Amino acid sequence: MAELTERQQIILGIVVREYIVNAVPLGSQTLASRHDLGVGPATIRNELSALEEMGYLSHPHTSAGRVPTVQGYRYFVERLMEDAELSVDEQRTIRHQFHQAGVDPEQWMKLAAAVLAHTARAAALVTVPKAPHCRFKHLELISIREPLVLLVLVLQEGTVRQQMLSFADQPMTQEELSRHANRLNAHFAGLTGEEIQQRAAGLALDPVEIETVARVVEIMAQIDQPAVREVYHEGLTHVLREPEFAAAERSRHVVRVLEDTSLIEAILSEVVLARHGVQVIIGGDHGTWEEIRDYSMVFARYGPDQDTMGVLGVLGPTRMPYERAVPAVRYIARLMSDLLADLYGR
Q: Is 258 within 8 Å of 157 (Cβ atoms)?
């Protein structure tokens, strides 16, 4: 990025903030009349021209004013935007909403999407947290009626799976089943399916335990299969109200982008899940993601620990209110992480 003088930074900040609010190009006369910059329209015009030459502003053919470019928005986000937080009152209101939702992760994710969409006036997306490999927490073996036994498998990220087993050759009491379950729990707590297989190979397990371990590994392998995770959406109407999407084709395109879960998953996995903190993607960032060249995305990871992560954030036009979106995403991600950590005792 080319370095800007203090006056150029002030002018660029004003152009970005006013264009975000009004979607109207700004000229030197308007800037001079609205803001006391200590210089006249001619000097402001020269500074606008310099900013345009450096790539931070562009000049629509139908207007005498300037609008920010992707590079201009990027400079604003990285250099000019204050690292603010949501107000104390907003944080208190949001926490109260989550408290009213009770202890229900699914409701938390839906609420996170709704709060983000309302706060940033954009389309919000929240993906379900998922570990690269699920990890064993504990299992129970429950006698139903001979020879049927219910296997209840609980994984560390909170997933619960049940499967019926049949031990026709070895009828057992509930006390015996519980003893087998306790032994397996002691050996396998915190392990992945592959690690369970490796450890089991070195243990002297009886036939009941061997069959139980085989089913556990099978269930965990199914859960680990690559899949597009569930995504909660909210706030599409906020995006469609923006003037950038007044044309029918532009409206249809943003709907297609939001519904293309494989595209969203690819973007989030490569850009967001690989990094810490709030990530801002502006206009596809110079063609890296051609499908979102007309949009900006503000996202962050969340989850109870580093192994089980989801992503939440917002998508809108490049003329996004970044000064609202960034602190909103940061706060909701932190709140969701804390809630899930408390729920799972992490």
A: no
Lookup: tokens for 214: 């085989």
Rounded Cα gap, residues 217 and 74, in angstroms: 47
Q: If you ran DSSP here, which 8-state letter would residue 76 be given?
A: I
What is the side-by-side strand order in the sheet with 231-234? 231-234, 123-127, 308-317, 295-305, 279-282
Give 100's DSSP letter. H
Are the beta carbons of 96 and 56 closer than 8 angstroms?
A: no
Exposure string for 58-79, b = 16+ CB within 10 A, e = fewer: eeeeeeebbbbbbbbbbbbbee
* Cα distances (Å, whole numbers) of residue 273 to 136, 209, 236, 278, 285: 23, 37, 23, 11, 17
Q: Do 196 and 179 meet the contact criterion of CB atoms below 8 Å apart?
A: no
Least confident of 1-15, 46-60, 116-130, 254-268: 254-268
By the 8 A CB rule, do 75 and 12 touch?
yes
CA–CA separation, 127 vs 322, rounded Å? 21
C-alpha 138 chain-centroid distance = 29
Give the integer Cα–Cα distance in Å for 318 and 283. 6
Q: For residue 293, which amino acid is it?
A: R
Note the pLDDT tens digit of each residue in 54-105.
999 998 876 678 999 999 999 999 999 988 899 999 999 999 999 999 888 8
Report the alpha-carbon distance of residue 181 to residue 140 in Å, rounded: 6
What is the residue whose two structure tokens read 């499967």? 163
Q: Which residues contact 276 (CB under 8 A, 6 or more apart)?
A: 301
Q: Is 131:156 a contact under the CB 8 Å cutoff?
A: yes
Classify residue 122 by its DSSP letter.
S
